[in-house]
What we know:
Layout: H1 3-12, H2 17-38, H3 48-57, H4 69-87, H5 105-112, H6 114-125, H7 129-163, H8 172-182, H9 192-206, H10 217-220, H11 230-255, H12 262-287, H13 293-318
Helix pairs in contact: 2-11, 2-12, 3-11, 4-6, 4-11, 6-7, 7-9, 7-13, 9-11, 9-13, 11-12
Amino acid sequence: MSDGLILLFSVLVFPGGLFALALGLLIKGVDRRVAARLQRRVGPPLLQPVFDLIKLSRKETMIPAQSSAAIFRWAPLAGFSCMVLAAAMIPINGVYRPSPELGDLLTLFYLLAVPAVVLMLAGSASGSPFGAIGFSREMSIMLAYEGPVLLALLSVAIRVGVGEGHLISLSLTEIVQYQRVHGPFILDPWMWPAMLTFLCFFPANLGVLPFDIPEAETEVLEGPLLEYSGPSLGLFKMMSAVKCVVVLGLGITLFLPNGPDGVLGLLLFAVKCTVLAVLGVTVVRTGMGRMRIDQAFRFFLKWPLALGIASLAIMLARS
């Protein structure tokens, strides 16, 4: 098989594409099921996210008369496509090494910002005032969490780069290999500030409580997604599922990539993603209420930013 076909397979089938979508939908189902149990409800079936997509695929996409039709129609497809590409960049220890042609840690950082930008475009293109409110909220919270997580990513890159004999390493494969030899960063106290910064980042990036402010159902009626229906809304749901795998997989790559080779390594990766989602998303969102946008903004510019600066300062001092 040629390099081009292998690259296409990794983007469309494994670990991007079909695999990332299936794992993301499974994690979404586990999240809803566990959240229901924590709230003493029966909860939906485990495959409810799949049933929702099937239902949406059979409905019509209604385009508001006051909307910008081209942006409204193509925004969800652009977001989903970028997340499929990002999923192909996540290494799975002992199973998959991404091609350098796909990009590095910095490329993945920029790709993770695409869903938020797409939601802002969708909200502004819909012509709905709720979409406009969701746009402003999404932009505010994005500006708040992007800085701290960039500092955490740079801390990991500097740690691996110095350990390998150069200033910085942006290769995701090299980050995994370094921890395979020297042990996972989750066991290194010097890396805990960076890890805590990332733990604060992924609920906000995934748009779940207490950071689901741009789409707050009780306030702005799903905000940017209010006017979406049918397959277009389904694409947003698929984008969210794949993004879940990308963000969780990135956390595993940065701090706990170790595991066996082969099928067991793949199963362990899926279990890690699911456990991290339950502990870092499900438990948090069932135990906390939604923050106001000003509270969330101050939170990220206070604690995660301080942790990110501390982690970068530690790595620079140790280098």
